[in-house]
Amino acid sequence: MTRPFILGLTGSIGMGKSTTAALFAAASIPVWDADAVVRQLYDLGGAAVAPIAAQFPNAVKDGKVDRKALKALLKDTPEAMVQLEAIVHPLTAQSRTEFVASHLQEPLIVLDIPLLFETGADKVCDAVLVVSAPAEIQKQRVLSRGTMSEAEFELILSKQMPDAEKRARADYVIETLDVETAARDVRRLIDQIMEKPHA
Questions:
Q1: Where on this chain does ATP bind (predicted)?
Q2: Residue 82 burial (CB < 10 Å; 0-12/13-18/19+)?
Q3: CA distance from start to end of the chain
Protein backbone atom coordinates (compact mmCIF):
# COMPACT_ATOMS: atom_id res chain seq x y z
CA MET A 1 0.00 0.00 0.00
CA THR A 2 1.40 3.38 -0.93
CA ARG A 3 1.30 6.31 1.45
CA PRO A 4 2.25 9.96 1.14
CA PHE A 5 5.89 11.00 1.04
CA ILE A 6 6.22 13.10 4.22
CA LEU A 7 8.48 16.11 3.78
CA GLY A 8 9.44 18.01 6.92
CA LEU A 9 9.90 21.74 6.36
CA THR A 10 11.93 23.78 8.82
CA GLY A 11 14.22 26.77 9.14
CA SER A 12 15.25 29.32 11.71
CA ILE A 13 13.34 32.56 12.31
CA GLY A 14 13.41 34.92 9.33
CA MET A 15 14.65 32.29 6.87
CA GLY A 16 11.52 32.30 4.69
CA LYS A 17 9.81 29.16 5.98
CA SER A 18 6.28 30.58 5.85
CA THR A 19 6.82 31.85 2.30
CA THR A 20 8.15 28.43 1.25
CA ALA A 21 5.20 26.65 2.90
CA ALA A 22 2.86 28.94 0.96
CA LEU A 23 4.64 27.95 -2.29
CA PHE A 24 3.94 24.27 -1.57
CA ALA A 25 0.31 25.08 -0.76
CA ALA A 26 0.01 27.07 -4.00
CA ALA A 27 1.19 23.94 -5.83
CA SER A 28 -1.75 22.02 -4.25
CA ILE A 29 0.47 20.15 -1.78
CA PRO A 30 -1.27 19.70 1.62
CA VAL A 31 0.68 21.55 4.35
CA TRP A 32 0.33 21.01 8.09
CA ASP A 33 1.35 24.19 9.93
CA ALA A 34 2.55 23.63 13.51
CA ASP A 35 2.31 27.33 14.41
CA ALA A 36 -1.28 27.56 13.14
CA VAL A 37 -2.20 24.48 15.18
CA VAL A 38 -0.74 26.03 18.34
CA ARG A 39 -2.74 29.22 17.68
CA GLN A 40 -5.93 27.11 17.45
CA LEU A 41 -5.03 25.24 20.65
CA TYR A 42 -4.60 28.56 22.47
CA ASP A 43 -7.75 30.17 21.06
CA LEU A 44 -11.31 30.11 22.41
CA GLY A 45 -12.40 26.48 22.69
CA GLY A 46 -8.86 25.24 22.03
CA ALA A 47 -7.82 21.96 23.62
CA ALA A 48 -4.80 23.53 25.38
CA VAL A 49 -6.77 26.28 27.16
CA ALA A 50 -8.10 24.26 30.11
CA PRO A 51 -4.83 22.42 30.95
CA ILE A 52 -2.85 25.68 30.63
CA ALA A 53 -5.38 27.46 32.86
CA ALA A 54 -4.95 24.71 35.46
CA GLN A 55 -1.15 24.99 35.35
CA PHE A 56 -0.79 28.75 34.77
CA PRO A 57 -4.04 30.54 35.79
CA ASN A 58 -2.66 34.01 34.97
CA ALA A 59 -1.91 33.00 31.38
CA VAL A 60 -5.57 32.54 30.41
CA LYS A 61 -7.94 35.48 29.93
CA ASP A 62 -11.45 35.52 28.45
CA GLY A 63 -11.34 31.81 27.69
CA LYS A 64 -8.14 31.85 25.66
CA VAL A 65 -4.41 31.83 26.27
CA ASP A 66 -2.93 35.30 26.59
CA ARG A 67 0.35 34.87 24.72
CA LYS A 68 1.92 38.01 26.21
CA ALA A 69 1.17 36.86 29.76
CA LEU A 70 2.42 33.37 28.92
CA LYS A 71 5.62 34.77 27.41
CA ALA A 72 6.28 36.86 30.54
CA LEU A 73 5.63 33.84 32.74
CA LEU A 74 8.03 31.66 30.73
CA LYS A 75 10.69 34.37 30.97
CA ASP A 76 10.40 34.57 34.77
CA THR A 77 10.01 30.82 35.40
CA PRO A 78 12.40 28.71 33.29
CA GLU A 79 10.90 25.37 34.38
CA ALA A 80 7.49 26.54 33.12
CA MET A 81 8.60 25.81 29.54
CA VAL A 82 8.93 22.09 30.35
CA GLN A 83 5.44 22.10 31.89
CA LEU A 84 4.00 23.96 28.88
CA GLU A 85 5.63 21.59 26.39
CA ALA A 86 4.19 18.62 28.30
CA ILE A 87 0.73 20.08 27.58
CA VAL A 88 1.20 21.36 24.03
CA HIS A 89 3.48 18.78 22.37
CA PRO A 90 1.10 15.78 22.73
CA LEU A 91 -1.77 17.89 21.34
CA THR A 92 0.23 19.06 18.32
CA ALA A 93 1.49 15.51 17.72
CA GLN A 94 -2.13 14.28 17.74
CA SER A 95 -3.13 16.96 15.22
CA ARG A 96 -0.17 16.02 13.01
CA THR A 97 -1.07 12.31 13.13
CA GLU A 98 -4.69 13.10 12.21
CA PHE A 99 -3.52 15.30 9.31
CA VAL A 100 -1.35 12.52 7.88
CA ALA A 101 -4.17 9.99 8.32
CA SER A 102 -6.60 12.26 6.44
CA HIS A 103 -4.25 12.65 3.44
CA LEU A 104 -3.25 9.04 2.80
CA GLN A 105 -4.23 9.28 -0.88
CA GLU A 106 -1.85 12.20 -1.53
CA PRO A 107 1.54 11.51 -3.09
CA LEU A 108 3.23 14.23 -1.02
CA ILE A 109 2.45 16.17 2.15
CA VAL A 110 4.48 18.82 3.98
CA LEU A 111 4.84 19.19 7.75
CA ASP A 112 5.82 22.81 8.49
CA ILE A 113 7.51 22.65 11.93
CA PRO A 114 9.82 25.42 13.22
CA LEU A 115 11.46 23.19 15.86
CA LEU A 116 11.50 20.06 13.71
CA PHE A 117 14.91 18.73 14.78
CA GLU A 118 14.68 20.13 18.31
CA THR A 119 11.46 18.20 19.03
CA GLY A 120 12.52 15.03 17.19
CA ALA A 121 9.68 15.40 14.66
CA ASP A 122 12.16 14.69 11.85
CA LYS A 123 11.78 11.01 12.80
CA VAL A 124 8.24 10.94 11.33
CA CYS A 125 9.44 12.44 8.02
CA ASP A 126 10.79 10.69 4.92
CA ALA A 127 13.02 13.68 4.20
CA VAL A 128 13.69 17.16 5.59
CA LEU A 129 13.85 20.45 3.70
CA VAL A 130 15.65 23.32 5.41
CA VAL A 131 15.10 26.86 4.14
CA SER A 132 18.00 29.19 4.62
CA ALA A 133 19.38 32.65 3.89
CA PRO A 134 22.56 34.53 4.85
CA ALA A 135 22.63 35.69 8.50
CA GLU A 136 22.54 39.40 7.65
CA ILE A 137 19.43 38.94 5.46
CA GLN A 138 17.79 36.85 8.19
CA LYS A 139 18.41 39.57 10.79
CA GLN A 140 17.24 42.34 8.45
CA ARG A 141 13.98 40.46 7.69
CA VAL A 142 13.14 39.86 11.35
CA LEU A 143 13.96 43.35 12.62
CA SER A 144 12.16 45.04 9.71
CA ARG A 145 8.89 43.46 10.91
CA GLY A 146 9.05 45.76 13.94
CA THR A 147 7.65 43.07 16.23
CA MET A 148 10.79 42.36 18.28
CA SER A 149 13.98 43.93 19.48
CA GLU A 150 17.47 42.79 18.49
CA ALA A 151 17.87 41.26 21.97
CA GLU A 152 14.63 39.25 21.57
CA PHE A 153 15.80 38.08 18.14
CA GLU A 154 19.15 36.93 19.57
CA LEU A 155 17.32 35.12 22.40
CA ILE A 156 15.13 33.20 19.94
CA LEU A 157 18.18 32.31 17.85
CA SER A 158 19.96 30.99 20.95
CA LYS A 159 17.10 28.52 21.53
CA GLN A 160 17.06 27.25 17.93
CA MET A 161 19.49 24.81 16.38
CA PRO A 162 22.12 26.79 14.41
CA ASP A 163 21.40 27.17 10.70
CA ALA A 164 24.65 25.42 9.74
CA GLU A 165 23.68 22.35 11.76
CA LYS A 166 20.18 22.29 10.26
CA ARG A 167 21.65 22.47 6.76
CA ALA A 168 24.05 19.64 7.57
CA ARG A 169 21.17 17.42 8.74
CA ALA A 170 18.82 18.32 5.87
CA ASP A 171 18.08 16.16 2.84
CA TYR A 172 17.28 19.29 0.82
CA VAL A 173 18.16 22.97 1.25
CA ILE A 174 16.42 25.88 -0.47
CA GLU A 175 17.89 29.39 -0.36
CA THR A 176 15.16 32.00 -0.02
CA LEU A 177 16.92 35.07 -1.40
CA ASP A 178 13.93 35.92 -3.60
CA VAL A 179 10.48 34.44 -4.11
CA GLU A 180 10.91 33.66 -7.83
CA THR A 181 14.01 31.49 -7.27
CA ALA A 182 12.48 29.82 -4.22
CA ALA A 183 9.30 29.06 -6.22
CA ARG A 184 11.36 27.48 -8.99
CA ASP A 185 13.32 25.38 -6.47
CA VAL A 186 10.12 24.25 -4.74
CA ARG A 187 8.64 23.19 -8.09
CA ARG A 188 11.80 21.23 -8.93
CA LEU A 189 11.77 19.53 -5.53
CA ILE A 190 8.12 18.54 -5.87
CA ASP A 191 8.84 17.01 -9.30
CA GLN A 192 11.89 15.22 -7.93
CA ILE A 193 9.97 13.70 -5.00
CA MET A 194 6.98 12.73 -7.16
CA GLU A 195 9.30 10.75 -9.45
CA LYS A 196 10.73 8.79 -6.53
CA PRO A 197 9.12 5.44 -5.73
CA HIS A 198 8.31 5.03 -2.02
CA ALA A 199 6.40 2.47 0.00
A1: 14-19
A2: exposed
A3: 7
State whether 148 and 184 are in the same domain. yes
Nearest to 98 by CA among 87, 114, 83, 111: 111
Asked if the structure places residue 131 within a domain, the reply is yes
17, exposed or middle or buried, with CB in 10 Å at 0-12, 13-18, 19+? buried
Q: Which residues are annotated as a binding site?
A: 14-19
Q: Of 80, 102, 124, which one is at a domain's C-terminal end?
A: 102
Spatial distance between the Cα atoms of 57 and 181, rounded to a whole number of angstroms: 47
Whether 24 and 118 map to the same domain: the answer is yes
The stretch 155-178 carries a mean pLDDT of: 92
Residues 13 and 45 in one domain: no
Range in 74-78, 94-98, 108-112, 192-196 the model is least confident about: 74-78
137, 78: one domain: no
Q: How many whole angstroms from its chain centre is CA 147? A: 19
Distances in whole angstroms, Cα of residue 132 to Cα of each of 8, 11, 45, 95, 188: 14, 6, 35, 27, 17
Residue ranges at the known binding site for ATP:
14-19
